[in-house]
Automatic annotation (TrEMBL):
This is DNA topoisomerase 1. InterPro entries: Topo_IA, Topo_IA_2, Topo_IA_AS, Topo_IA_cen, Topo_IA_cen_sub1, Topo_IA_cen_sub2, Topo_IA_cen_sub3, Topo_IA_core_domain. Releases the supercoiling and torsional tension of DNA, which is introduced during the DNA replication and transcription, by transiently cleaving and rejoining one strand of the DNA duplex. Introduces a single-strand break via transesterification at a target site in duplex DNA. The scissile phosphodiester is attacked by the catalytic tyrosine of the enzyme, resulting in the formation of a DNA-(5'-phosphotyrosyl)-enzyme intermediate and the expulsion of a 3'-OH DNA strand. The free DNA strand then undergoes passage around the unbroken strand, thus removing DNA supercoils. Residues 817-826, 835-845 have a biased composition (Basic residues). SMART domains: TOP1Ac, TOP1Bc, TOPRIM. Residues 1-113 form the Toprim domain. SUPFAM superfamilies: Prokaryotic type I DNA topoisomerase, Zinc beta-ribbon. The record marks 31, 139-140, 143, 155, 295, 486 as: Interaction with DNA. Residues 815-868 are annotated as: Disordered. It catalyses: ATP-independent breakage of single-stranded DNA, followed by passage and rejoining. The gene is topA.
Length: 868
C-alpha cells in the first residue's frame, strides 16, 4: 500500500476515511528536522550550508514511515499547501533518503480535507516546489543568524534582556512606539452643545450646534466652559425652525471572506481569542474536514463554493438575499504565497449547531460560516436623513442625523466588529417636516478631551503588521505569542502594554541596530522572500547580502561598554523615565536628597532600575516603570518595641520593609514585601510591624489542637493548619481573620492528590486479621482495599453485589501473588533503613535535575534563534 504522510494524527484519521484500506496514512507530527540550537548550524563560510538533525521525539515517527516503506516504496507527501507544508515534505524526503532509493516520491496538496478534494489531489500529484522550499530555507537561515548573533549582544550589553528576533523585535517596536505616542500625548479640551428638540406632535430628537455667530463651528472653537455657556444662551434665546430635511439612500456591501489575519482580528474582537488560540481551534476544524486551510493570504473562493453559498443563502433566508450575480473579491496581498483560497466552511449547509466539537471550535466555526455566507449576500440598504435647524437671523444652526434600515441584507447574518468606537451615528429620527418649529426641551454643553491613540490589541497589531508588510499568515500567531512569553509585553484587558524590559530592548536595537528594526527594511526583506518563492531571486544571494551588512553592524557594538549602553538608553527613554513634574522642577532631581540626579542603573542580578547618582550617601531607587514618589529609597519608619529601626526600602522586586540593618552576625535581617494593592508611599510603622510579624497565630484548631496561622506567601494570603494551606481572598484578612472563619476556610478547601481520602463505594466490615475492608473507585475501576492490599474487582462483579466472602478471596489471591501483607506496626529499625537510603535518592534526584536543566538551556537557545 502506498504510504501517505501528513502532519498530524487528526489529519491522518480524517484522510484515512476517504482513502480507505488501499493506503497507509501516517503522521510526521510536524517538522521532523531542525537546525541544532548551537553555533555553526548555518555555516556562513560554506555559503550558508545548513546542518539539520532529526529531533529526538521525531525519530520514532521517521522509523514508522521507513518501516511502512519497506513493504511499499511509493511515498506520497500530503502536507499542508503552504511554505511550511512544502518545507515539511522536503525535510521528510531528505530524512527518508536512505529508504527512497527505489521509491517513487510525489507531492499532493488540497485546500480542504473533503472526499472530493483529497481524491482530486491524489489524481494530480506533482514534485516538491523547490522555490517554495528555498524561501523557507532563506527565512529559517535569516531567523537563525539574527537570533544566534544578536541575542548574545543583548545578553552582554543589556543585563536582563532575553533575546531578539528578526520580526518579533519589529513587532515589539510597533507596540513600544505606540506607548511612547500615548505618553507624549497631551489632551486638549473642547466643548460641544446639544439640544433636545421636539416636533409639533411632541416627538423628541437630538441635534448638535454646528453654526455659531453666523459661521461654521470648528472642533476647538468652544475651548472652555465659559465659551460653551455663551453658546448655550445664544441657542436658548432664539426661536428655531427646521430649515431643511434631506434623505439620501445608502448601501453597505459585505466584507470579503476570511483570510488568516482578518480571522485572527475578528476572533479577538468577538470571541476574545488570542492569535494562538484562534489558530489552534482553526487547525482542529481544518483537520476534521470542516473548514478550508486556515493559513492563507487569499480571499478568493472556489466557484463551486460560491454557488454552494448562494444555494445556502436562498434556502435559509430567501431569494431576496441572493444578489443577481456572485460577488468576486480580489486579493490585495502582494505575491501571496500561502494557500490561495479564503477560509470558509467545506459544507455551506452545515450550520454550527450541527457540529459535534468543543465550544471554542464551534464559536470559531460559527464566525467563519456567517462571514462566508454574508460575503455572498445582498447589500444592506438604508436611508440616511439630515435635518438642519436654524434661527431666523442665521446666528445659530443645529443638525440632527439618523438612518432607517430599509433592507438588512448581509447584516441579517453578520456585522464586523470594531476595536474602537468609530462614532457612526445610526440614531432613528421621528417624522420631521421642513418649515416646522423646533421646540427646545433642553440645551446642554458637554465637555470633551482629545484622546490618545489606543493601545494595540492582538487583532490591531496583526492588522498593523499586515499593513506594513511585516510577517506572513503562518508567523502572526507565533510572533504575538513570543513577545508575551518573553515578558517583553503583557496583555491587560485585551490591550498589549510593553514591559520595561521590552522598552529597554527596543531602545537598544533602535540605537545600535536601527536598520534591522526598521519597518521598511523588514517589509523589503519579506518582499525578497516572496521573490524567492516565485523563483525570481536566488536565496543564497539574499543571504549573502544580508550577512555582509549585518556582520558590520555587529562589529560596531563589540567595543561598547555597559555604561555607554545605559547612558544611550537613558537618554532615549528620558520622556518615559523622567516625566515632567507638576511643580515644574527638574524631573531628574532626586526627590529624596535633593542633590543627586537620577540615572538608569543595572542590578547585580540583572534588570534595571532608576537610582540616585549620589549613592551611597543617598539610596533612593525605584523601578523604571514607577512614577516619582511611587517608591522611595531607605526611609526609616520608626522603632519597634525593642528599639530596632524599621525601614522602607526598594529592591529589585519592588518595595519592602526591613527590621534593622545587615551585620556580620545577621547578614540577612527580617524582611517583608509590600503586598500587591498596598501603596508603598502610605506605609507606616504600624503596617510595617504587622507585615514583619507574620505569620500570625490565630489559635489552636478545635479538633486537634494544632496551631492555625495566617500569612502571605508566594501565592498570596493564606491560612495554615499543620501542612494544610487554604488561600484567602484579600491580603487585609490575614490580620483580622478569627478562629471560626479560619476553620471554615480550611474545611471548604477540597483535598487533592495523596492527601485526599478516596470515597468508599462500599464498607464490607472488619477483616478476620483486623482492619477495614472497603471497595474503592480507582484509576482502573473499582477495587477491594485491605491495608496495603488492593485487589481489582472482576468485570462481572459490581461493588454493590460484592460480599465479604468474595472480597476475602480476592484479597487472599492478591496477597499471595504479590507477597504483600496488610499494614502493620513497623519495627524501630525500619525508619533507620529508610533514612539510610535518602542520600542516594537525593543524589539521583540531583543528577536527574541536571539533565533537564541542560536540555532546557539548549531549548531556550533554540527558541532565541527562531522567529516564533
Amino acid at each position: 500500500m502506498p504510504v501517505v504522510v501528513v502532519e498530524s494524527p487528526a489529519k491522518a484519521k480524517t484522510i484515512n476515511k476517504y482513502l480507505g484500506d488501499d493506503y497507509t496514512v501516517l503522521a510526521s507530527f510536524g517538522h521532523v528536522r531542525d537546525l541544532p540550537p548551537k553555533d555553526g548550524s548555518v555555516d556562513t563560510d560554506a555559503d550558508f550550508a545548513m546542518k539539520w538533525e532529526v529531533a529526538a521525539e521525531s525519530k520514532k515517527h521517521v522509523k514508522a514511515i521507513k518501516d511502512a516503506l519497506a513493504s511499499d516504496p511509493n511515498l506520497i507527501l500530503a502536507t499542508d499547501p503552504d511554505r511550511e507544508g512544502e518545507a515539511i515534505s522536503w525535510h521528510l524526503r531528505e530524512a527518508l533518503a536512505s529508504s527512497l532509493k527505489k521509491a517513487q516520491v510525489s507531492r499532493v496538496t488540497f485546500n480542504a480535507i473533503t472526499r472530493n478534494a483529497v481524491t482530486e489531489a491524489m489524481a494530480n500529484p506533482r514534485d516538491i516546489d523547490q522555490p517554495l522550499v528555498d524561501a523557507y530555507l532563506a527565512r529559517r537561515a535569516l531567523d537563525y543568524l539574527v537570533g544566534f548573533n544578536l541575542s548574545p549582544v543583548l545578553w552582554r550589553k543589556l543585563p536582563g534582556a532575553k533575546s531578539a528576533g528578526r520580526v518579533q523585535s519589529v513587532a515589539l517596536r510597533i507596540i513600544v512606539d505606540r506607548e511612547m505616542e500615548i505618553e507624549a500625548f497631551r489632551a486638549r479640551e473642547y466643548w460641544t452643545v446639544h439640544a433636545t428638540l421636539a416636533t409639533p406632535k411632541g416627538d423628541e430628537y437630538r441635534a448638535q450646534l454646528v453654526t455659531y455667530a453666523g459661521r461654521k463651528l470648528e472642533r476647538y472653537d468652544l475651548a472652555n466652559e465659559e465659551a460653551a455657556r455663551l453658546a448655550v444662551k445664544a441657542v436658548e434665546s432664539r426661536d428655531l425652525k427646521v430649515t431643511s430635511v434631506t434623505s439620501k439612500p445608502a448601501s453597505r456591501n459585505p466584507w470579503p471572506p476570511f483570510m488568516t489575519s482578518t480571522l485572527q482580528q475578528e476572533a479577538s474582537r468577538k470571541l476574545g481569542l488570542g492569535a494562538r488560540a484562534c489558530m489552534s481551534a482553526a487547525q482542529r476544524l481544518y483537520e476534521a474536514g470542516y473548514i478550508t486551510y486556515m493559513r492563507t493570504d487569499g480571499i478568493d473562493m472556489a466557484p463551486e463554493a460560491v454557488m454552494a453559498a448562494r444555494d445556502a443563502i436562498k434556502a435559509r433566508f430567501g431569494e431576496a438575499y441572493v444578489p443577481k450575480s456572485p460577488r468576486v473579491y480580489k486579493n490585495k496581498a502582494k505575491n501571496a504565497q500561502e494557500a490561495h483560497e479564503c477560509i470558509r466552511p467545506t459544507d455551506m449547509m452545515l450550520s454550527p449547531d450541527k457540529l459535534n466539537v468543543e465550544p471554542e471550535q464551534r464559536k470559531l466555526y460559527d464566525l467563519i460560516w456567517k462571514r462566508t455566507l454574508a460575503s455572498q449576500m445582498e447589500a444592506a440598504r438604508m436611508e440616511r436623513t439630515t435635518v438642519e435647524i436654524g434661527s431666523a437671523d442665521g446666528q445659530v444652526g443645529l443638525r440632527a442625523t439618523g438612518q432607517v434600515m430599509l433592507f438588512d441584507g448581509f447584516l441579517k447574518v453578520y456585522d464586523q466588529g470594531t476595536d474602537d468606537d468609530e462614532g457612526e451615528d445610526s440614531a432613528r429620527l421621528p417624522q420631521i417636516a421642513q418649515g416646522e418649529p423646533a421646540a427646545k426641551r433642553a440645551v446642554v454643553p458637554e465637555q470633551h478631551f482629545t484622546q490618545p491613540p489606543p493601545r494595540y490589541t492582538e487583532a490591531t497589531l496583526v492588522k498593523r503588521m499586515e499593513e506594513l508588510g511585516i510577517g506572513r499568515p503562518s508567523t502572526y500567531a507565533s510572533i504575538v505569542t513570543t513577545i508575551q512569553d518573553r515578558e517583553y509585553v503583557r496583555k491587560d484587558k485585551n490591550r498589549l502594554i510593553p514591559e520595561d524590559k521590552g522598552r529597554l530592548v527596543t531602545a537598544f536595537l533602535v540605537k545600535y541596530f536601527p536598520r534591522y528594526v526598521s519597518y521598511d527594511f523588514t517589509a523589503e526583506m519579506e518582499g525578497e522572500l516572496d521573490d524567492i518563492s516565485s523563483g525570481e531571486r536566488e536565496y543564497r544571494e539574499v543571504l549573502r547580502r544580508f550577512w555582509r551588512d549585518f556582520t558590520a553592524a555587529l562589529e560596531g557594538t563589540s567595543e561598547l561598554r555597559i555604561t555607554e549602553v545605559l547612558e544611550a538608553i537613558d537618554e532615549a527613554l528620558a520622556p518615559h523615565l523622567y516625566p515632567a513634574r507638576a511643580d515644574g522642577g527638574d524631573p531628574r532631581e532626586c526627590p529624596l536628597c535633593g542633590k543627586g540626579r537620577l540615572n538608569l542603573k543595572t542590578a547585580r542580578s540583572g534588570g534595571a532600575f532608576i537610582g540616585c547618582n549620589n549613592y551611597p550617601e543617598c539610596r533612593y531607587t525605584r523601578p523604571i516603570s514607577g512614577a516619582e514618589g511611587e517608591a522611595v529609597g531607605d526611609t526609616v519608619l520608626g522603632l519597634d518595641p525593642e528599639g530596632i529601626e524599621i525601614s522602607l526600602k526598594t529592591g529589585r522586586f519592588g518595595p519592602y520593609v526591613q527590621r534593622g540593618e545587615a551585620t556580620a552576625e545577621q547578614p540577612k535581617p527580617p524582611r517583608a514585601s509590600i503586598p500587591k494593592g498596598w501603596d508603598a508611599a502610605s506605609m507606616d510603622l504600624e503596617k510595617a510591624l504587622m507585615l514583619l510579624n507574620l505569620p500570625r497565630e490565630i489559635g489552636p484548631h478545635p479538633e486537634d489542637g494544632v496551631m492555625i496561622e495566617a500569612g502571605i506567601g508566594r501565592y498570596g494570603p493564606y491560612v495554615k493548619h499543620g501542612s494544610r494551606y487554604a488561600n484567602l481572598p484579600e491580603v487585609d484578612e490575614v490580620f483580622t481573620i478569627g478562629m471560626n472563619r479560619a476553620v471554615e476556610v480550611l474545611a471548604a478547601k477540597p483535598q487533592r492528590g495523596r492527601a485526599a481520602p478516596a470515597a468508599a463505594l462500599a464498607e464490607l466490615g472488619e477483616h478476620p486479621e483486623g482492619g477495614a475492608v472497603q471497595v474503592l473507585s480507582g484509576r482502573y475501576g473499582p477495587y477491594v482495599k485491605w491495608g496495603k492490599v488492593n485487589a481489582t474487582l472482576p468485570r462481572d462483579v459490581t461493588p454493590e453485589s460484592l460480599t465479604m466472602e468474595q472480597a476475602l478471596e480476592l484479597i487472599s489471591a492478591k496477597a499471595s501473588k504479590g507477597g504483600k501483607k496488610p499494614a502493620a506496626k513497623k519495627a524501630a529499625k525500619e525508619p533507620a533503613k529508610a533514612a539510610a537510603k535518602k542520600p542516594a535518592a537525593r543524589k539521583t534526584a540531583k543528577a536527574a535535575e541536571k539533565a533537564p536543566a541542560r536540555t532546557a538551556t539548549r531549548k531556550a537557545a533554540a527558541g532565541k534563534a527562531t522567529e516564533g
